[in-house]
Write a structure and sequence with these properties.
Blueprint: E1 18-22, H1 26-37, E2 41-46, E3 59-61, H2 64-73, E4 82-90, E5 96-108, H3 109-121, E6 142-144, E7 147-154, E8 157-163, E9 169-174, E10 176-179, H4 186-191, E11 198-210, H5 216-222, E12 225-231, E13 234-241, E14 254-262, H6 268-273, E15 285-286, H7 293-306, H8 309-317, E16 322-330, E17 335-336, E18 341-343, E19 349-350, H9 358-375, H10 378-405, H11 410-420
Parallel strand pairs: 1-2, 1-10, 2-6, 4-12, 10-18
Antiparallel strand pairs: 3-5, 4-5, 7-8, 8-9, 11-14, 11-16, 12-13, 13-14, 15-16, 16-19, 17-18
Bound molecules: flavin-adenine dinucleotide.
Length: 435
């Protein structure tokens, strides 16, 4: 065990030595990478039965905190994001109706994931060089196929129970627990059983098309641009992201579309789209490769009828579409049992994707967690992470509902979007968000 690089605070805070992290997606890996580099011993428990999580091949807008995280903790030293220079708005005929200069950085989920695994447990991949351990690092332990079911406190320790990859019950003892287990978090359900995750009345259809398969018209609409289309019940945004193995060279990138479209609760169309190839009604996601032909035809027809031609082309050319139901969930606080158990990322608050802030939230929470564990300032950790979660979750609901369920002038949607682009450090936190 390395000695954590922390100072015991004057009020007697004793930094933990061994931290269990539930969830091995981006939030869990941000936690593992940062804490390891500060000398803490960590164990990640991930329920997925395979060593590597399934790549959904989709884009992530890399905001300030995501970039700040990689800047501070990435030892692989490869670029993580591509840039666009402009925001462009199309009408249904595909003509540009508004544009503004605005730099934006976009990455892909898989590139972030493999960079974090390379940094945490030295996982080899085609994405980046593996960064070896350095003196002072804490011990690492990545366990997949481990589904956490319960935990209990015993004095200064927390005992975490899980089913291992063979379905056998096991437990692990730690002195600090991080719930990074996503918007349907088990840790949150145990601590706050009344918090619900609710369907918002619309879905997002997502997919990617290799840049070289796109028409010239589509390339000029989407390369170096962040391109939007608004219509009643529809928002489509399409942009360029890194390609296979994180390739960023021209011709090797992907065009990524994110198409919000309304499917009312209980409607036949929602049932069609959310029933997979095996006839199973999925609750919230249809992963890549599992959509039925019938659902895909229905979606493509909707695209042909309602989207600008460049965006409809992306839908037609996508080979692995996937669907996510848009949901809302937020936890009243993220710290429990005298600050020994915390929730971060989507487990704290599942934002609507319009906020382009989910990955940034996970990165920010971890940057704040490091401060907490180094200084013992528990109040600041809770205040800053929960106030941010409250504000952005609320704004996501507000702009999402305006976009999908109201018919407003384009300028209102542009203003909403620009509000979401205010850097975190410049945000005003109204009294109702404050701790
Ligand atoms: C496989 C996957 C692919 C994704 N792809 C994209 C994408 O392409 N684009 C995008 O914008 N966002 C994507 N996301 C969402 C994005 O990663 C998150 O919104 C954001 O990064 C914050 O993530 P999180 O780690 O807090 O939660 P999540 O990403 O939801 O991760 C939670 C993790 O916890 C694990 N878990 C849940 N319950 C338990 C349990 N009881 N025991 C052990 N482990 C548990 C889950 O398997 C999951 O790996 C993806 C998420 C996942 C899991």
């Amino acid at each position: 065990m390395a000695t954590p690089q922390v100072n015991a605070s004057s009020d007697g805070f004793r930094p933990p030595q061994h931290i269990v992290i539930v969830g091995g997606s981006l939030g869990g890996l941000f936690t593992g990478v940062a804490l390891k580099q500060h000398g803490f011993d960590t164990t990640i428990l991930e329920r997925n039965p395979n060593n590597l999580l399934e790549n959904q091949g989709a884009g992530i807008v890399a905001g300030g905190d995501t970039l700040a995280f990689f800047d501070r903790y990435d030892r692989c030293k490869r670029p993580v994001a591509v840039e666009s220079q402009k925001r462009v708005y199309l009408d249904q005929s595909g003509q540009v109706v508004h544009e503004e200069e605005m730099k934006q950085t976009m990455t892909s989920w898989d590139l972030c994931y493999y960079m974090l695994r390379a940094n945490y447990d030295h996982q080899e991949s085609g994405y980046c060089q593996v960064a070896g351990p350095q003196p002072g690092d804490g011990k690492i332990d990545y366990r997949y196929g481990c589904t956490v079911t319960d935990f209990k406190r015993e004095g200064e320790h927390v005992i975490v129970s899980y089913n291992n990859i063979n379905g056998e019950k096991e437990s692990i003892t730690c002195d600090f627990l991080v719930g990074a287990d996503g918007p349907s978090s088990t840790i949150r359900k145990i601590l706050c059983p009344n918090v619900e995750r609710k369907y918002a009345g619309y879905c997002v259809i997502r997919g990617t098309v290799p840049e070289q398969e796109a028409s010239e018209q589509a390339k000029s609409a989407f390369i170096q641009r962040f391109t939007f289309f608004h219509a009643p019940g529809i928002l489509n945004l399409t942009y360029t992201i890194p390609g296979i193995n994180g390739a960023m060279e021209e011709g090797k990138r992907l065009l990524n579309f994110v198409w919000y479209t309304n499917f009312p609760e209980g409607s036949e169309e929602l049932e069609t789209v959310m029933t997979d190839m095996e006839g199973k009604r999925r609750r919230l996601t249809i992963p890549p490769g599992t959509m039925t032909d019938e659902a895909w035809e229905m979606v493509k027809t909707r695209g042909r009828d309602r989207l600008p031609p460049q965006m409809s082309e992306m839908v037609e050319k996508t080979k692995q579409p996937f669907v996510q139901c848009i949901t809302d969930v937020i936890t009243p606080t993220n710290s429990f049992m005298d600050g020994k158990i915390v929730l971060i990322g989507d487990a704290l608050a599942g934002f609507r994707p319009h906020t382009v802030a989910s990955t940034g939230q996970a990165a920010f929470d971890v940057l704040m967690l490091v401060e907490y564990l180094k200084s013992g300032d528990h109040h600041q950790f809770v205040k800053r992470t929960v106030e941010f979660a409250r504000l952005i979750q609320h704004r996501g609901v507000y702009i999402g509902n305006r976009g999908q369920f109201e018919s407003l002038p384009l300028k209102d949607y542009i203003e909403d979007r620009n509000m979401m682009s205010i850097p975190r450090q410049d945000l005003d936190f109204p009294p109702w968000t404050q701790i």
